Amino acid sequence: MCSAGAGFYHVSAYVEEAKRWGITVQLPSVNHSRMEYTAEPACNDKRALRVGLMQIKGLRIETITTIVRAREESGPFLSVEDFLHRVPIERDEIEALIKCGAFDEVHDQARPMTRPEMLWQWNLLQAAAKGTMPGASRLPRMTLPKKTESLFAEATTPDSIGATLAEMQMPEYTLEQKLRYERELLEVCVSGHPLDFLPRNDEVWSDQLPGLLGKRVTLCGWVVTHRHVGTKNYRNMMFVTLEDQHGIYEVVLFPDAYDRYGGLVFETRAMRVTGRVEQEGQINGEKLEALRK
Q1: How far apart are CA 193 and CA 22, in angstroms?
Q2: Is 80 exceeded by the pLDDT of residue 15?
Q3: pTM to 2 decimals?
Q4: Distance between CA 263 and CA 204 in Å, rounded?
Q5: In the chain, what is the straight-line distance between the N-terminal and C-terminal CA atoms, in Å?
Q6: Domain 206-290 maps to which CATH number in 3.40.50.720, 2.40.50.140, 3.30.300.160, 3.10.20.310?
Q7: Of the four, 75, 79, 148, 280, which is 20 to 30 A from 126 by CA?
Q8: Rounded to an integer, what distance in angstroms lies between the CA atom of residue 139 and that of residue 160?
Q9: Is residue 218 within 8 Å of residue 203, measured between CB atoms?
Q10: Rounded to whole angstroms, how far apart are CA atoms 180 and 163?
């Protein structure tokens, strides 16, 4: 369902539901992912869900096919340099792969590299090609695929780049930064939930709603989907499906509430919702607010 996009909800909702069921979800990986989502063994003797390379925004089908074929023909990628030798790739594609974590499992075991260091490694290769690094013209050439070679004709040796990066000592992204890149590049949050770093003030959780029938409650939520419905009086109302870390719930905005707050759905996905709990846990929405840090 995640691969086919055939579900009623966005794929992110199914990924979050998998995590709530205890299924391990793995970031896309140039060494393990295929085009589509796949199941693979996890360390807890269960199955894990591996995000497919198709989920990375801006990554072309031709590039995905080449990555998988190169891995099948010559084995896993050993480093960023090894990847660049074997896969023709555009600048925005390699940056997206690094930022979303697809290279986290590709590094020298003697000196693991952070994502910022990998990005700098890529930039140092470009700088060397343009002759902007001291002594770049004296460094040996690398044989690269034509498309990658168009970005830089020559590059520094791995040792010289490694020495430069070791001196820079750039820390890894924080968990919040990783989630931001996952939302931006994958539209799926693997390392956490989109609401994890937003403030809470004693709001109830979605799985508490069945026990709060008839009560006025406030919840935090991340918009999954929404749909408009016209009334017989030619006014608009809206059904908004949201999720928090505990589950999915639905809010109904009747015409008066829709006129006041319906537009907020198009401005932000993080919301604080106030309303009364109806049958089956549905919320009769009275107020929506943007949830900001």
Answers
A1: 14
A2: yes
A3: 0.80
A4: 24
A5: 33
A6: 2.40.50.140
A7: 75
A8: 10
A9: yes
A10: 30
